[in-house]
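Render this sequence as a predicted structure.
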Amino acid sequence: MRVVVRLEDLEDSLESASREARAAFGDGRLFIEKYLARPRHIEVQILGDGSGEIVALGERECSIQRRHQKLIEESPSPAVGHELRARMCEAAIRLATRSGYRNAGTVEFLLDGDDFYFLEVNARLQVEHPVTELRFGCDLVAEQLRIAAGERLLEPKRPRGWAIECRLTAEEPEHGFRPATGKVLYLQLPSGPGVRVDSALEQGTVVTSYYDSLIAKVVSYGATREEARRRMIAALDDVSILGVGHSTAFVRAIVASAPFAHGELSTRFIEENSPSSSWAHEHENAALIAAALATGDSKEFSFQSTDSGSHDPARNSSRSSPWSKLGNFRLWNTR
């Protein structure tokens, strides 16, 4: 792909793109499309039962991405009002109807202002489907089984509230998102009202390099977007995974940021709103503890921190205090 901003660059870009396509795929033909500099990525969940009945279960916002890989999703989108939602859902249903679609699927669009453009259809259940399930009170996996059994679609429930999903990956954001592997030495995942976690992790699980980096999905639900957002922040604060590097603090910084809180999203969000680097210190401290636990080293060890902690009398009352040994690190969040 080539992005052409100036007309004088068009010919060279066409030639180089065609040459690379021919070398890679044996076909140098190209197509040209409008370039959207700061679009939002919006997708519509559909179900089709094969009888011609198609339903759309609202939209999901998937604009927070890194290298076109989604990190955070929510439903509904803060940018989509009733009229725009009706148009997008109608377009998705029309496409699925004309193609005779059967099963669960997602029709994806790029949104630029009030104009939306077709991107693709994912003919499967997607990673972010829980946000739709929480809002519509349904089970999309069960719906797929009903469709496969030849049953007709049920009338979808009226959507309620707001849901946000964060993908936690075995990657190290502070080191350029390099893949992380290792044995899970300690695991704590959040729970409670309005919080759902989908994960196969257990203490002792070995995370290898042979599979996708996704290790858990944390989903929050609330009556409003702000309630769901605050509940997500609290849930991510409760995540503790030692022994394997992970992206929890990175996505937590995004959800807690002012641009995210204000719904100012686009596919360039991470490029334009780099989260604070403060999350890196907690990860480095956790890595040190994990290393000590893995080797069985019982020697005393301490951590360096940018905050001296001099304001905390619990840490300075005695040199023998465990707080003075651990510096600013906290293994568990204490809200």
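Summary. The longest helix spans residues 82-98. The radius of gyration is 23 Å.
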